[in-house]
C-alpha cells in the first residue's frame, strides 16, 4: 500500500475510521462536559482538571493488568459491546444520580477497562493494513483525531452554552451507540488473536526487554512533555488560547500527512531524531514571551514534529511478537495517554511557582533531554530491535 486511496480501499478500515473518529468526537465532548459539570457542582478548578483527565490516568494500569484481553477476546463483539456500556455510563452521569466522587470513580473505571478495548482496534488496523499500510492507516487516524477533537470541542461548546453539560453528555452517549452500531454491522467476525497460556506473561515479557522499554519510552516521554507544555496554553494566552490549540492541531495534521504519505520506512528511521528535536525547539522561544500570533507559528512548526512517532510506532510494531500485538499496542497507547495526563499535571504544578512561559521552556528542554537519552533507541535498525524481543509462540 502506497497511498491513502489504497488504505481506504479496504472496507473494514473504512469502518474502523468511521468508528474511531466518532469515538474521538464523543470522547472530547465527554471530557469537556464532565469537567464543566464538576466545576459547576464544586467551584474547584483542581477537581475540574481532575475530571478532564480522569479517564486517561488509569489507562496504563489497565494495560498492565488486563491488557492481554486485547488478544484473547474476539474484537467485533468486544468493541461494539463496549460502546453500549460507555453510553450507559454517560447516561448515568448525566442523570444527576451520582455525587461528584461517584462521577469521577465511574470515569476512572471506564478508563481502566477501556485500555484493552482500544488496543483491540489498533491491532485490527495492523491486521488489515500490513507493511507500509499500517503507517498510512495510523497517519489517517491521527489526522482524524485532530479534526474530530476540534469538532468535538466545537459541538460540546455549543451544547454547553445552549442547554448545559448534561445535554452534551447525552449527545456523547448517542454518539457511542452509533459507533457501537458501526462496529457491529461493519466488521466481520474474527476469532481471538491468541488463547495460549503464555500470553498471560506478555506484559512481563514486553517490559522485561530493554529494546522494547526504550521504544515505549520514546512514545511516552518526549511527546508527553510537549503535551504538558500545551496544557499551559490557557494560562499563557487567556482568551486567545484557542488560536494556539488550532495551530497545534494544524501542525500535527500536516506532519502526519507529509511523513505518513511521502516517506519510506528507511527515511522515517532517519527522520525520527530530527522530528523529535523539532517538536521541542520552537517552544524554547517562549522564553521571550512571544505574542499570540508568533506563538501560534512556533506551535504549528513544533507540532509538525509529532510525526516522529510514526516511525517509532512502526519499529515497535515490527519488534513485538504478532500474538502480543494487541496487548503491546494497548500498552503503548495507554501509557502515552497516562504520560500526557501526568505531564500536564506536572507542568501545571510547576507553573504555580514558575512563570508560565518559563514552565513551557522547561518542558521543552526536558523533551530534548529525553530525546538525547533515547537517541540509540530512535536510530536502531529494525533487525537489531527484533533480535532482542522474545517470541512467545
TrEMBL record:
<feature type="transmembrane region" description="Helical">
    <location>
        <begin position="144"/>
        <end position="163"/>
    </location>
</feature>
<keyword id="KW-0472">Membrane</keyword>
<keyword id="KW-1003">Cell membrane</keyword>
<dbReference type="InterPro" id="IPR036259">
    <property type="entry name" value="MFS_trans_sf"/>
</dbReference>
<feature type="transmembrane region" description="Helical">
    <location>
        <begin position="232"/>
        <end position="254"/>
    </location>
</feature>
<feature type="transmembrane region" description="Helical">
    <location>
        <begin position="46"/>
        <end position="69"/>
    </location>
</feature>
<feature type="transmembrane region" description="Helical">
    <location>
        <begin position="169"/>
        <end position="186"/>
    </location>
</feature>
<feature type="transmembrane region" description="Helical">
    <location>
        <begin position="90"/>
        <end position="113"/>
    </location>
</feature>
<keyword id="KW-1133">Transmembrane helix</keyword>
<dbReference type="Pfam" id="PF07690">
    <property type="entry name" value="MFS_1"/>
</dbReference>
<dbReference type="InterPro" id="IPR020846">
    <property type="entry name" value="MFS_dom"/>
</dbReference>
<dbReference type="InterPro" id="IPR011701">
    <property type="entry name" value="MFS"/>
</dbReference>
<feature type="transmembrane region" description="Helical">
    <location>
        <begin position="275"/>
        <end position="307"/>
    </location>
</feature>
<keyword id="KW-0812">Transmembrane</keyword>
<feature type="transmembrane region" description="Helical">
    <location>
        <begin position="355"/>
        <end position="375"/>
    </location>
</feature>
<protein>
    <submittedName>
        <fullName>MFS transporter</fullName>
    </submittedName>
</protein>
<feature type="domain" description="Major facilitator superfamily (MFS) profile">
    <location>
        <begin position="169"/>
        <end position="393"/>
    </location>
</feature>
<feature type="transmembrane region" description="Helical">
    <location>
        <begin position="21"/>
        <end position="40"/>
    </location>
</feature>
Amino acid at each position: 500500500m502506497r497511498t491513502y486511496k489504497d488504505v481506504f480501499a479496504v472496507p473494514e478500515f473504512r469502518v474502523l475510521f468511521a468508528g474511531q473518529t466518532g469515538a474521538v468526537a464523543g470522547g472530547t465532548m465527554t471530557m469537556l462536559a464532565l469537567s464543566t459539570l464538576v466545576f459547576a457542582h464544586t467551584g474547584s478548578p483542581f477537581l475540574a482538571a481532575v475530571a478532564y483527565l480522569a479517564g486517561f490516568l488509569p489507562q496504563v494500569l489497565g494495560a498492565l493488568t488486563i491488557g492481554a484481553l486485547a488478544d484473547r477476546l474476539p474484537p467485533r463483539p468486544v468493541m461494539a459491546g463496549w460502546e453500549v456500556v460507555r453510553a450507559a455510563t454517560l447516561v448515568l452521569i448525566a442523570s444527576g444520580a451520582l455525587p461528584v466522587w461517584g462521577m469521577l470513580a465511574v470515569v476512572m473505571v471506564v478508563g481502566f477497562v477501556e485500555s484493552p478495548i482500544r488496543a483491540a482496534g489498533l491491532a485490527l488496523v495492523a491486521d488489515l493494513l500490513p507493511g507500509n499500510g499500517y503507517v498510512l492507516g495510523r497517519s489517517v487516524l491521527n489526522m482524524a483525531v485532530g479534526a474530530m477533537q476540534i469538532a468535538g470541542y466545537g459541538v460540546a461548546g455549543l451544547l454547553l452554552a445552549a442547554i448545559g453539560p448534561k445535554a452534551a453528555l447525552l449527545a456523547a452517549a448517542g454518539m457511542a451507540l452509533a459507533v457501537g452500531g458501526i462496529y457491529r454491522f461493519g466488521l466481520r467476525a474474527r476469532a481471538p488473536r491468541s488463547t495460549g497460556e503464555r500470553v498471560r506473561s506478555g506484559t512481563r515479557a514486553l517490559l522485561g526487554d530493554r529494546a522494547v522499554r526504550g521504544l515505549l519510552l520514546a512514545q511516552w516521554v518526549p511527546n508527553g512533555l510537549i503535551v504538558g507544555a500545551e496544557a499551559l496554553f490557557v494560562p499563557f494566552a487567556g482568551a486567545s488560547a484557542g488560536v494556539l490549540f488550532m495551530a497545534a492541531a494544524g501542525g500535527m495534521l500536516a506532519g502526519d500527512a507529509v511523513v505518513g504519505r511521502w516517506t519510506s520506512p528507511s527515511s522515517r528511521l532517519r527522520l525520527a531524531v530530527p522530528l523529535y528535536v523539532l517538536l521541542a525547539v520552537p517552544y524554547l522561544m517562549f522564553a521571550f514571551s512571544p505574542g499570540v500570533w508568533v506563538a501560534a507559528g512556533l506551535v504549528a512548526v513544533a507540532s509538525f514534529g509529532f510525526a516522529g512517532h510514526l516511525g517509532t510506532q512502526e519499529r515497535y510494531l515490527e519488534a513485538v511478537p504478532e500474538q502480543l500485538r494487541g496487548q503491546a499496542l494497548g500498552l503503548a497507547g495507554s501509557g502515552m495517554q497516562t504520560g500526557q495526563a501526568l505531564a500536564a499535571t506536572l507542568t501545571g504544578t510547576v507553573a504555580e511557582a514558575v512563570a508560565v512561559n518559563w514552565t513551557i521552556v522547561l518542558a521543552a528542554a526536558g523533551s530534548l533531554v529525553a530525546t538525547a537519552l533515547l537517541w540509540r533507541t530512535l536510530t536502531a535498525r529494525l533487525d537489531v530491535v527484533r533480535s532482542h524481543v522474545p517470541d512467545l509462540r
